[in-house]
Amino acid sequence: MRIRTAGVVALFALALAASGCGGDSDEPAAKETPRAAGGKLVIWADDKRAVALKPFAEKFGQENGVTVEVQAVSKDLQTNFVTASQQGSGPDVVVGAHDWIGNLVQNGAIDPVQLSAEQKSGFNETAIKAVTFNGQLYGVPYAQENLALIRNTELAPEAPKTIEDLVANGKQLKAAKKVTETLCLQVGQNGDAYHIYPLYASAGGYLFGTGANGDYDPKDLGVGKPESIEAFKKIGALGEKGEGVLKRSIADTNSIATFTGKKCAYLVSGPWAVADVKKANITYDISAVPGFAGGKEAQPFVGVQAFYVAAKGKNKALAQEFVANYTTTPELAVALYQAEPRPPALTAALDQVKGSDPDLAKFQEAGKNGQVLPAIPAMAAIWDPFGKAEAAVIGGADPTSTITAAGKTISGQIK
Amino acid sequence: MSTPPSGPGSVTRTPGREPAGSPPSRLPRPRPSGSRPSRSQVTRDHAPITLTGLAGKVLLLGLTAGVAVWAAFPLIAAGMWAGLALLAASTAGLFYLYLTRRHIPAKYLVPGTLFLIAFQVFPVIYTASTAFTNFGDGHRGSKDDAIVAIQSSSVTQVPGSAEYALSIATKGDPATGPLVFLVTDPGTGAVSIGDTGGLRQLDAADVTVGTAGKVTAADGYTVLNFGQASARSKEITDLVVPTAGGALRSSGLSRAYEGKAVRAYEAGCDCVRDTETGRTWTADEEAGAFVASDGERLAQGWKVNVGLRNFTRVLTDENISGPFLGTLIWNFAFAIGSTGGTFLLGMLIALALHSPRMRGTNLYRVLLVLPYAMPSFAMLLAWRDMFNADFGLINSLFGLDVDWFGQAWTARFAVILVQLWLGYPYMFLVATGALQAIPRELTEATSVDGASPWQSFRAVTLPLLLVALSPLLISSFAFNFNNFNAIYLTTEGAPFPADNPTNGATDLLITYTYRLAFGGQGAQFGFAAAISLFIFAIVAVVSAVSFRRTRQQEEVWA
What we know:
The structure holds 2 protein chains of 2 kinds.
Chain A: H1 2-32, H2 34-37, E1 40-45, H3 47-64, E2 67-72, H4 77-87, E3 93-97, H5 101-106, E4 110-111, H6 117-121, H7 125-130, E5 132-133, E6 136-137, E7 140-146, E8 148-152, H8 163-175, H9 193-202, E9 208-210, E10 216-221, H10 226-237, H11 255-260, E11 266-269, H12 274-279, E12 284-287, E13 301-310, H13 316-326, H14 330-339, H15 347-354, H16 358-366, E14 371-372, H17 380-394, H18 399-413
Chain B: H1 37-45, H2 51-78, H3 81-99, H4 104-130, H5 143-152, E1 155-157, E2 163-170, E3 179-184, E4 191-195, E5 198-201, E6 207-209, E7 215-218, E8 222-223, H6 226-230, H7 233-238, E9 241-242, E10 247-251, E11 255-261, E12 263-266, E13 271-274, E14 280-284, E15 289-291, H8 309-316, H9 318-354, H10 361-373, H11 376-386, H12 393-398, H13 408-437, H14 440-448, H15 453-481, H16 484-488, H17 509-518, H18 525-557
Antiparallel strand pairs in B: 1-11, 2-3, 2-8, 2-11, 3-4, 4-5, 6-7, 9-10, 10-11, 12-13, 13-14, 14-15
Helix pairs in contact in B: 2-3, 8-9, 8-18, 9-13, 9-15, 10-13, 13-15, 14-15, 15-18, 17-18
Protein name (chain A): Arabinogalactan oligomer/maltooligosaccharide transport system substrate-binding protein
Keywords (chain A): Signal, Sugar transport, Transport
Pfam families (chain A): SBP_bac_8
């Protein structure tokens, strides 16, 4: 029995060493390796961008004697980042859209970035404006995107000047059985505030007024105001009970496919649609989204992709160095463009790629009068109610009562 | 809040429960003879120790210890001593239990109980405790976190100040020596040295300045390279060199700027003061935010207990309580409809295939199980597209012009139809199993007695089937009651009334809760947790009542 107990103890010690205790001896060992001595930078990005970033991040690491790790977070990057940084397991740098800023700041997840005046001047003005929140620069932009009208030039050789022109031409094509839909603009069952916004703005609607310093003012909500009701009357007239141009059956899942299937001559979409359009061998051209005749110019939202420094990162100085001094180089911007063709925010990088890709210049031209997508936290309250009101009006609901109710819901959600 | 697991046939499959493919145990069966209860008792006490048994025991206990050690380090690092004590106690308890030869039943019960506590009881307790807080976007961390965030995000560059080129240096060892900033003013080329004591100019003769204006060497100092410097990242970020206009801070490892924290927390008034505008925001411990006198809040708040506010909000806020009742009724209709519908269809097909006159039953069975074999995740998306009013298969196939997801009743009908398609194969499978366990002699006896097939079904087959399948039906009901995927992947709750974007015609409580938690004005975990508790209570009551009724039923029929 004595021997058996000794055997149990010995075997147990062995198993312990094999299973778990290896874990705690890892850490001191890791500290001794020379690579880790230089500190480690962890970057989170979505799948596509993570692939594009990797070689550059590695180069940065080699040049500076540090370890750089790019981790792809394929789903819910923003929420995962907020949760992880709250728990202290987040990255040092995160890559994402500029309209996250409001939420990330209110959760204390990102720190401001200090760029020199010279660095700032290298960027497109809109892009810098987009990442500025409460007077502070919270990220370094690298690409921007906006909606435009993509049209099949075989069916519609001329760019329409107004929505009315577009509808008239689309109807002719429909009567001639060349297409089945007038316009592919995604609405979906629950609406899509981003895609309807150019028309909403053209008809005079607005989301938030701007304060004295040019920032959006969450207290001045445009939804539910008379301007928005007028705008939705015009949008409703294009809806299912009116002209039948806007339909809930056209959604994010089928709008591009319907266009590439030549069922409609016009598509309202962004740079991300171009790859599919090219693949479908459609001769196309890109122009600005037209507005209503006699109305204002149609303004698409301009969104910016940016690098952020995590407030609770373990290696903030290195993260600042990477974001402020390395991501501002045109080479990186060009590489990210090649991974996914969206116009670079750095003017120098845009000039470099513009020559080989005429679509970029056209998208940029279409977004020239665009409006920076608001990054204030109150914007989160807009998307859902606004989209659903849009879907209801397009489905034939009364614009006045619908939009008034949506405005009420939104203002009720804004603290 | 959790979403139901998806996977093949997740619609009606209940995690953790075995399908009743085996014969119901309550039917009379001959008892196995020769079972001697005393034998196992005897063998256990004198069981020889086998090598595999010993190795298995050692390996498992070693694993337990390994997991415990692995889990202990983060707990120690976070200073969570209560959690560590709990871990130590449960590990010690496990060792005691499996190293002694006593407590045989506990050896079987304890692992399951531990997992139950870890994966069921803790999450429920955590949800319950969250329900009493304002945890959500803007209120995630502690007050200290909020103060740090407010102060650090208010640091702005002093207008007109210079942009310095920065090198980080130390007098002593690169890894431990006290850090200093060596900064070069690009305008004048003057080099200064800065530490917490302030900034003083260095003699140009003592330093070597590189091409980018950075100091590459300085007498008496070791200039750190990026690798060395980044290892001390936190110290660099924290090093603030006071200057006349504010303070010199690092921006990365190669630049420094003169910045000023405009907002600062003052403990005396428990408020945040803006030194430029003079505005103050006083801490409001009930709201978990700094609030100015005019009601303006700073964005960065903290988590506070709000008592029963989340619960009363469900009941008193008329935007929530009104739709809540409507959603609850539809939720019951959906759960009953999908469970009952799939059961009826599944059972009818099982009965048809059970008939001895049926030929080619195996082929039918294979075909019938197909929907069950497809991932419901993908199938739900496919069905969503099939119901598209203009491009969908259903309208074009039948020449219809129905706006399926655009009207409340057609949308409800559509989601139940999809549930039926996805769920009946499962019910068919379990009903087939249960039917085969009912002795044919029983039905034959009824026909000898002159009963019609319908009478024999009503009096014999159905009751016996129900006895076997009731627990499955109840668990299937509970699962469908919270069938998030079924709604979220098809209609997302649509159609929504024109004047109410928060609560759609096909919304279940769980999709509604999800929208509250993650949609609208950012995440509101506290409020969503309160609704989850309501759902939990409803499902628990329904299940308890049904199980009680089932037991009574068994007493009648068994």
